[in-house]
From TrEMBL:
<dbReference type="GO" id="GO:1904047">
    <property type="term" value="F:S-adenosyl-L-methionine binding"/>
</dbReference>
<keyword id="KW-0460">Magnesium</keyword>
<dbReference type="GO" id="GO:0051539">
    <property type="term" value="F:4 iron, 4 sulfur cluster binding"/>
</dbReference>
<comment type="function">
    <text>Catalyzes the complex heterocyclic radical-mediated conversion of 6-carboxy-5,6,7,8-tetrahydropterin (CPH4) to 7-carboxy-7-deazaguanine (CDG), a step common to the biosynthetic pathways of all 7-deazapurine-containing compounds.</text>
</comment>
<feature type="binding site">
    <location>
        <begin position="124"/>
        <end position="126"/>
    </location>
    <ligand>
        <name>S-adenosyl-L-methionine</name>
    </ligand>
</feature>
<feature type="binding site">
    <location>
        <position position="36"/>
    </location>
    <ligand>
        <name>[4Fe-4S] cluster</name>
    </ligand>
</feature>
<dbReference type="GO" id="GO:0008616">
    <property type="term" value="P:tRNA queuosine(34) biosynthetic process"/>
</dbReference>
<dbReference type="InterPro" id="IPR017742">
    <property type="entry name" value="Deazaguanine_synth"/>
</dbReference>
<keyword id="KW-0479">Metal-binding</keyword>
<feature type="binding site">
    <location>
        <position position="28"/>
    </location>
    <ligand>
        <name>substrate</name>
    </ligand>
</feature>
<feature type="binding site">
    <location>
        <begin position="38"/>
        <end position="40"/>
    </location>
    <ligand>
        <name>S-adenosyl-L-methionine</name>
    </ligand>
</feature>
<keyword id="KW-0671">Queuosine biosynthesis</keyword>
<protein>
    <recommendedName>
        <fullName>7-carboxy-7-deazaguanine synthase</fullName>
        <ecNumber>4.3.99.3</ecNumber>
    </recommendedName>
</protein>
<comment type="pathway">
    <text>Purine metabolism; 7-cyano-7-deazaguanine biosynthesis.</text>
</comment>
<dbReference type="GO" id="GO:0000287">
    <property type="term" value="F:magnesium ion binding"/>
</dbReference>
<feature type="binding site">
    <location>
        <position position="79"/>
    </location>
    <ligand>
        <name>substrate</name>
    </ligand>
</feature>
<dbReference type="InterPro" id="IPR058240">
    <property type="entry name" value="rSAM_sf"/>
</dbReference>
Length: 235
């Protein structure tokens, strides 16, 4: 059995959400059941890039994680694309037996039994600006599957007022999930630089929006890796 892998990179720091700053090796799976208008990882989503994805066995992925981490147990983040459309159970079992921790980023459209074996499950339902719409029954199945994960959180990207209002509704549906908000990056072309002032302005807007609203539940964070490296891949 092989998995479609777009890239494996690191160690770097986790740039987003609950594990921000954590030394991490990323395993980015190829293929996604969504097409978010602002996706920053199209090279792992669009089938035009399919020829760049490598079929890899669990053992081959694991060897690469070992090589990149120098054999030091750290956190492996499964991202994509949507990693949940493939079976990562054997890789997680292998890595955990060696003392590594596993996180997974997924939109919550497809649930997997292995969600329960993770250290951190990040569910990132998509707001209106994405152009996608959430199947809340499928999302609830993901929450159920993740019940035995050590930690499970919700992370929502916010571009505008409609996304902000939507995030409140999403939180009300799953109030027990710790909530993280991050401003959207509108500029995702890997060839073009990001505008740091624009990103700062978006973070300021989101922070002030929540504070003046008296909504003190979410943690609000930038994409740290974008501030450091812009849209560069493999960091
Ligand atoms: C590329 S996705 C891959 C995992 C999964 N498909 C998902 O969306 O959760 C990883 C994270 O990046 C976020 N993301 C994608 N494009 C973004 C953008 N333009 N600005 C801010 N966050 C973005 C997603 O919302 C998700 O939380
Ligand atoms: N440093 C770093 N942090 C990240 N957090 C989430 C990422 C992702 O694309 O899933 C990501 C990424 O690609 N790089
Ligand atoms: S669900 Fe994630 S990987 Fe898929 S298109 Fe949306 S942001 Fe990109
Ligand atoms: Mg990313």
């Amino acid at each position: 059995m092989t998995l479609r892998i777009a890239e494996i990179f690191g160690p770097t720091i986790q740039g987003e959400g609950a594990l921000i700053g954590e030394p991490t090796v990323f395993v980015r799976a190829g293929g996604c059941d969504y097409r978010c208008s602002w996706c920053d990882s199209l090279h792992a989503v669009d089938s035009a890039y399919r020829h760049t994805w490598t079929p890899m066995s669990d053992a081959e992925i694991w060897d690469e994680v070992l090589r990149l981490s120098g054999g030091q147990a750290l956190t492996v983040s499964l991202s994509g694309g949507n990693p949940a459309i493939q079976d990562f159970a054997p890789l997680i079992a292998r890595g955990r037996a060696a003392g590594y921790r596993f996180a997974c980023e997924t939109q919550g459209s497809v649930s997997r039994p292995w969600f329960g074996d993770l250290d951190t499950l990040v569910l990132s339902p998509k707001p209106p600006s994405s152009g996608e719409s959430v199947d809340w029954a499928a999302f609830a199945a993901c929450v159920k599957a993740g019940q035995t994960a050590r930690q499970m959180v919700m992370k929502i990207v916010i571009f505008d007022e409609a996304d902000y209002d939507w995030a409140k509704d999403a939180h009300a549906r799953h109030p027990d999930l710790p909530l993280y908000l991050q401003p959207g990056n509108p500029d995702v072309d890997p060839e073009s630089p990001v505008d740091p002032q624009d990103l700062a302005d978006r973070l300021e807007w989101l922070t002030e929006r929540a504070m003046t609203d008296g909504w003190f539940t979410p943690r609000i964070l930038p994409q740290l890796h974008v501030l450091i490296w812009g849209n560069k891949r493999g960091v």
